[in-house]
Structures are given as C-alpha cells and as structure tokens.
Amino acid sequence: METFNLPPLPEYSLKPLPSLIPPIPDKFLTLLLPIAAYWIVSMIFHWIDTKDLFSQYRLHTPAEVLKRNHVSRWEVVRDVVLQQIIQTLVGTVLGMTEPDDVYGKENYDVAVWARRIRIMQRALPGLLSLFSINANGLAKNMAGSYPTLAGALSGGVYPSLTEAVLLSNGGHVSIPSFATWELSAAKAMYWYIIPAVQFGVGIFIVDTWQYFLHRAMHMNKWLYTTFHSRHHRLYVPYAFGALYNHWFEGFLLDILGTSIAFKVAGMSTRQGMWFFTCSTIKTVDDHCGYSLPWDPLQRLTSNNAGYHDIHHQSWGIKTNFSQPFFTFWDRFLGTVWTGGDISARYERSKIAAQRLVDQASPITNTAQSQSNTSNPKPYQDALTEAKELYITPLSLQQPQPPNGKATQQAAASREQVLDDYDDGGRQILLEEAAEEKEARSMIRKSNRRRTASSLTQSESLRGLRERVTMHGRTGGILGMESSR
After folding, report:
1. Of 13, 21, 81, 191, which one is least surrounded by beta carbons within 10 A?
2. Residue 394 and residue 401: Cα distance in Å, rounded?
3. Over the stretch 297-347, which tens digit does the pLDDT of each residue have?
C-alpha cells in the first residue's frame, strides 16, 4: 500500500479547549468582543472629536456634524444598540451550530500536511524532465553533500530518514520519518497559511455580499426609502454612527453577511472571534470622519473614511458602494466616483456651517478627462430616469460636474436624495443650492481681496488636503491638485 512508504501519523487525544479569558466561554467572548470593540473605538474617535484633536485630518468640521445630519445622536445610539441586540441573538444561535472547541490534534494535523508535502514531491522528477533535467541523476550526485535536497529531487525518497519502532512482540522495525523542512512547511501551512486563506475568503464574501446588497438598496427605490435611507440621514458620518441602520437592513447586510462568511470559510470559534471584531473595527474606521496618515486600516486598503465619505454626500450617494474592506467591485463594475474636482462641494458645506473658509482648495478624485472616457455603465439611463431634477436643474448646479459619466452619476445621486420624501430630500437639495451660491460668492470676494498675507493664510488649508486625500497615493479617490 502506498501509505506504507509514508511516515505514520501520530496518535492523539482530544481535550476541551480552555477559554481564552477564563472564566468567559469563547463563544460568549465571540459575542462580546465585536460590541466592546465598536464602542471602545467609537468613543476614542468621539473623544478626539470633543477635544478637537488632529483637526488637520478631519473630513468635516464639528459644525457640519450638527448642521447637516438629520438624526440626533440619541436616535443613533438607540438604533445601534437595537442592532447589537439582534446581532447577539443571531450570534447565540450561530454558536449553537458550532461544535465545542477542542485541542490535542494539532500534531496529527501538522503530520497530515507533512504527508501531503511528501506526496507532492513525487511529481518533481516528472516536472523536471519537461525541462530535460534528470532529477534522479542529479539527486545521486548531491546525495553526499546535500542529502535532504537529493531526497526531494528524487521524489521524496529519504533513505536516511527513519526511526525505530518497538513492536508488541519485543522486536524493532524501521519506519520512514519526516524531514525537518517538511515539518516546518507543514506547521507554517497549518498555523499561518490556511488561517490567512480562510480570513481572505471571509473578507471576499463579506465585500461581495455587502456590495451587491448595498447597491441594490440604492438602485431599488422601495428598498432605499423603506430601509437604507435611515443610514443616510448621516450626511456627515461619525464613528458610533457606523451601524446606524434600519434593524432589518442591519440584520441582512451586516449580521447575515458576516455569518455566512464565517461558515463558508470554515473558521473556528476563535478565528470567528477575530474576524467579527476586525470587521466591526473596520466599519467604525470607515465612518470615523478622519483621514489619519498613521491609521493602518486606512493605508492598507483603498476603502477608507475618505472613500466612503463621498458615498454619504448628496452628490455621490449612488457611487462608492464597496464596504467594508476593499473597492474591487466598485472598480470592476464602474460604480466608483469619477466626478473630478469636488473641492467646491466640500468647501460649500464647510463655509455654510462655519463661515470661516475664505477660499476654495481643490480636492480631486480623478482627472476630468476620466469622466469623458469612462464607460457610463451602470449610470447610462440616469438622466432620462431622473424625473425630479427640475427642482435644481443640472445645468444650473454649481459646480457643474464634468461631462460624461460624472454627469450621470450626479443626476442619479441627486434623484436618490429626492426620492427620500420623509427625510426632506427636496429641502436638502434646496438648502445645498443656496449654500453653494453663497459659498461661491464668498470665495469670489475672498479671491479679489487676496494679498500677500492671504498667501500665508492659505497654508492653513493644508489640513483639508490631508483630511481628504488618500495619503498621497496617485489616483486616490480624493487626491489633491492645485488650481493656481
């Protein structure tokens, strides 16, 4: 039998796995950690808000949070707590379907992987022969100096790697054993590579699940006005508003999606513990309202607070659907924001809320030419379907979006806001139109009064650049370029 030439697998005895933090059971800790992480990270950002720390990295001013949002903080906390109660109930049921964690089989599982590595070596001579390399001859020449390498080249044959086993009758027999490198590779596979792959699969499933459901919530008027419009009462997102949703949307989009990812990826309870917690922290970070250059979550992924902030604006609400980790679905399906220079839009909100900015500073997403050349899908019918745009005709909007796909994205986004009658979508656009007119008037007056001293003052706007750029990345969603 083929297995006779393979090293034997060790025996094992299973024992219950002790709790990570005694006396709290791991399954209960899996329910507790994401909620604790949500409020701890949120309160850290809230403390930063109240102390006005790192103001140079803010996407919006405190006045904008108070002025532009259409929901009180109390309502936000209430709905988040409701979602977390549902999350706990679903997590409890999910935990009932999971077996209790045990240990004692680790060496056996590592040996299984070492066997697989040994079996894969059998294909090596055949593969080398495709390149006219005589693996067996090469192995014989290297056997004296490099016996381990020679064994691998000969198809996993290691004559010197044996161990003596005592038989029940008192005799001894020699059996194959694993090479040190095989066991090292097997341990790396078991302890690091497989868990990393499982985590990656979970991330892909969550990103896919949330992208398509999130996009459906925006493309279907009934789904948007019935469920998702609640989340968009936060035009200026902040950390503890990350899970402010209609309870059913929260269950469908967040709770069910991560549960499916956990099951499909085949994670253990402890893997799920960190997966759920990391997903929660990433969601909070995406809504934190800060573009911190030292934040690893914002630097490692292109989906960050600056990217998601566009989605919360009235002019970008039908773009940038990806969440919470990466943006590949937005880019693959053409829903990433392509509206070019959006500095006047940000400055309009800032001026209207605080009356402090005296000149615009351009914030760009992509070059204006990209709008003209981009495939218009899925916005190709936006202009014909936008029947409510007569309130603020596209031709009168300031700043006007560049021609092409950006015009269609802007039309679709504004139509979405108008769909939300209950939360005053029409009034929001009318207010923004008035703010735009006033802001541009102030900017023009400021430019006429511009002196040498004002050039120094313009340096204070660097904070805006750092708040809404992708940390200097070329082609970032809110990259910076000078207009002067």
Report:
1. 13
2. 9
3. 888 888 889 899 989 988 889 999 999 999 999 999 999 988 765 666 766
Rounded CA separation 161/177 (Å): 5
Residue type, 134: N
Tokens representing 134 are: 């005589």
In order of 188, 235, 249, 465, the CA distances from 60 in angstroms are: 45, 10, 26, 12
Q: Using CA atoms, how far apart are residues 219 and 136, in angstroms rounded to an integer?
A: 63
SS (H, E, C) 376-387: CCCCCCHHHHCC
The SS3 of residue 103 is strand
Name 165's bridge partners: 173
Residues 6+ apart with CB under 8 A from 223: 216, 217
* 389 touches 408 (CB < 8 A): no
Report the DSSP pairing between strands 15-16 and 162-166. Answer: unpaired
pTM: 0.78
Query: Which residue shows structure tokens 């004692």?
Result: 104
Residue 394 DSSP SS3: helix
Can you tell me the distance from the alpha carbon of 479 to that of 199, in angstroms, rounded to the nearest whole number?
Answer: 30
